[in-house]
Design goal:
GO cellular component, one term: plasma membrane
Number of domains: 2
Protein name: Protein translocase subunit SecE
Order of helices and strands: HHHH
Keywords: Cell membrane, Membrane, Protein transport, Translocation, Transmembrane, Transmembrane helix, Transport
Main location: membrane
Number of strands: 0
Number of helices: 4
Strand content: under 5%
Largest sheet: none
Distance between the termini: 65 Å
Oligomer: single chain
Radius of gyration: 27 Å
GO molecular function: protein transmembrane transporter activity
Length: about 120
């Protein structure tokens, strides 16, 4: 965790999470209750309820910490050194060859053991 982020837990965080749970429950119940309505209208209504629930969730201390984590993750992804096309192709080729070799080995071992067992059983 980032030491800059203080965990200020509000006394209303529990109430906010209750509102989020109630909104999600209302979305689920409403979607099943209005099953005879157009799918487009139900999806739009569910998206609206999800946006409101997300907005309320981001007002809590954990929601703010999650948002900060997402921002910091985005900055970290920019620092990643991605492999070149050649490195990717070489690594993929090595993995494919290794899988084929191990697959052939296991197929041979299975065939050998099957032949041994069938010889013993008769």
């Amino acid at each position: 965790m980032n030491p800059k982020v203080t965990s200020e837990v509000s006394k209303f965080d529990g109430l906010k999470w209750l509102v989020v749970v109630l909104l999600v429950a209302a979305g689920v119940v409403g979607n099943s209750y209005y099953a005879d309505q157009s799918l487009l209208y139900r999806v739009v209504a569910l998206l609206a309820v999800a946006l409101v629930a997300g907005f309320v969730a981001f007002q809590t201390a954990k929601g703010k910490a999650f948002f900060t984590l997402c921002k910091e993750s985005k900055n970290e992804i920019r620092k990643v050194v991605w492999p070149t096309r050649q490195e990717t192709l070489q690594t993929t080729a090595m993995v494919v060859v290794a899988v084929l070799v191990i697959g052939l080995f296991l197929w041979g071992l299975d065939s050998l053991l099957g032949w041994v067992v069938s010889s013993v059983i008769g």
